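2 proteins. here.
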Amino acid sequence: MARITVRRSRSSMTGPNTVPMPAGPGQGRPLGAPQQSDPQGVAHVLNPDTIAHANELVSRIRACFSRGLIGQQQLRESLIVTLMAGGHILIESAPGLAKTTAARLLASSVSGSFSRIQCTPDLMPADLVGTQVFDFATQRMTTQIGPVHANIVLLDEINRSSPKTQSAMLEAMAEGATTIGGESIPLPSPFMVIATQNPIDEEGTYTLPEAQMDRFMMKTVMTYPTPEQEGRMLDMLTRRRTDQPDYSHSPETTISLRDLEFLRDTVRHVHVAGAIMKYVVDLVSTTRGSGPRPIQGLGNIVRLGASPRASIALVRVAQAQALLNRRDYVVPEDVKDFATDVLRHRVLLTFEAQADDITSDEVIDRVIKAVPVP
């Protein structure tokens, strides 16, 4: 039977500079670069105090990770960047590499509601989104929302759920709402899905369709820890005398939902030059067999390239990475830092390529090397 646990929201706290304010000329912006503007034409500039406050909030998230996870810096940064960029993330690894622990540590660093859903083949869509029940007291149907209505949702082993349940999750990720009894119910804001899957099990699993894979901003793959990291992990476990991480943190060491909205709003105001946007488009176009320098023979190993949603994800992730690097503008390195995580589940290989043990990561490396850097 599916196991569902829900942690309801704690009281949020407010911090300084909760909304990025325009102030003076941009700091660190290339000479002559235009300012960002909203649809009403009002210019927004990130001042040093705003950038510093954003990084101070991120340092709290990293501190929560350090208290429960050894190593896995790439996974930690992927989770943080996806959280800031407003996307969803899929984590894949062999069993026992702390996928669930990492996801719960991220959720515990944010003072919002959290749900953990253990996916199984008998999990039904109503178990996720909710259902309508008859209230004998009022003689009316009432709506009971499901655990997906939380700020951060952990879908453990998502590929064990049936296609029907996966489609219900797809609606939530795509529309930001669920449908119960013909009524559309908005999901809380902010909303983030962290899904995990085990790539080696086949019995009782259902491959995620390409449409749902594309809804994840990133797909990160965890690797085994080094012997030194594994030794530190054992030392940490013996010192705390329990195998269960402590997911409870004081309000002073976490960030509030308002802080998270501040981070996401600040990311959207990071400047992206036209040359950077063209670089992103060239990267994505090259995966489709075109681009400024097409890769010869790519059509024999790639049956479907990345979608335009990949271009959007690359820009948002690059904006978040630039902010973490204390800049108010994006450089090509910000795009390349997470290009593999953004593209690996969107570049689909032919059967011939899979038979030759060619991976999507190898294809993406060739694409990054082929596209000229602005």
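next one coming up
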Amino acid sequence: MQTVQAETITAPFATTSVSPEDILQQLVRQQKTRKKWLIVQPMSTTSMMVDSGSVSMPLNLIMVATVAGRLFDITFIDERIGDRIPDDLSPFDVVAVTSRSLNASKAYAIGDAALRQGKIVLLGGVHPTMLHQEAGEHCTSVIYGEIESIWTELATDILQGTMKPLYRALELKPMSDMHRPDFSYALASKRSKKYSSRIPILATKGCPVGCNFCTTPTIYGKNYRYRELDLVLDEMRYHQERLGKKSANFSFMDDNISFRPKYFLTLLEEMSKLGIHWNANISMNFLDKPEVAELAGRSGCDLLSIGFETLNPETIKSVHKGSNKIGNYEKVVNNLHQNGIAIQGYFMFGFDNDTEESFQLTYDFIMKNRIEFPVFSLVTPFPGTPYFDEMKPRIRHFDWDKYDTYHYMFEPTGMSGETLLKNFVKLQQEVYKGRAIMKRMQGKPFNWVWLANFMMNRFTNRLSPEIYM
């Protein structure tokens, strides 16, 4: 790991009682020219459909650009839409790369290349946070968690050339300090039309539920923060004005937007006055109440992504997902459908409690309840989670390229790996057969969810168990 050292710039009032922010601003004023950053969203190398078609604008990386852009010149590159990283990095002082597990090897390669050219290299995102010692071998500094909470220290060290190997906040800043994301960094690309029309937005951070397969509790602990409602609503109005239309489409990137019911319901009530459309990932813990679904529909919600995960109560208990009550599944679905809200339902397979019957139960549930967009994945113990520590002796490999929730990680005790994959492929092909699509989608508005189903029909027809190895 390379750590940049340089002579420290000392502010004239360094011996007086001044705040770290004052020192940073003094260093900024001493700059003769602004340092230049290259900020990179790497593409994954997985064989599955992770980075295909339109992709969401990377909100977390846009926030990095927004924060850093106040002090430094920014070049923003998103490999997923076809942007290319230059071989010659001489114009840049800092190369900052985000990473999930499935693109960690690509992020590491970028970091290695930048280090060879003498650049300050920052690696952030979920994977470097979870495995910061490993990531530290490919960068100057690892950013643990969010950059906003360590920004003053990091920016000061960059200007002074006194980098630390790890930047981790002692406490997280309130979300009221969060700047409105500047989407111009991403939209400046000639290929920006490849981004989804959904505008990513954030109202809350964290999820105290504590599912043992989730990385969020490791990053944020039991913290749950939220922005003032006026800030969220003002951001929505800004985008309505930017686009010149009231019916802007938003996608909440929150881990669990409904964890504080009073906050969530008040937000929905205010959103109902704006004329927008929105979707979100959401816990189902109080969607069994008809009035909640009615308010969500009235506020412009057209799709909710729900982690049903499994139809097996023992599995729900084993992964500590107490918000999922299988007896409420059908009631939740019915409440949402009655209010015109489509469901993207997530189902996982490969738990030790799974049997061949698990696949049939899931198929029956999906078809009976006409789940519009079922998404299937294989259980993946991600680094940094309690589940990873528990399953590590049984994990077949640590090839991060395959940590995409679509590759076979370990053999469950209830069936062989061969049986698991055979049934996993069969379930997807049955759910996305033409007649199954028509049965699930009959009478529903013709929109992108229909198109996604037809794309999945073509995709699943090509599947085989070998793809998942």
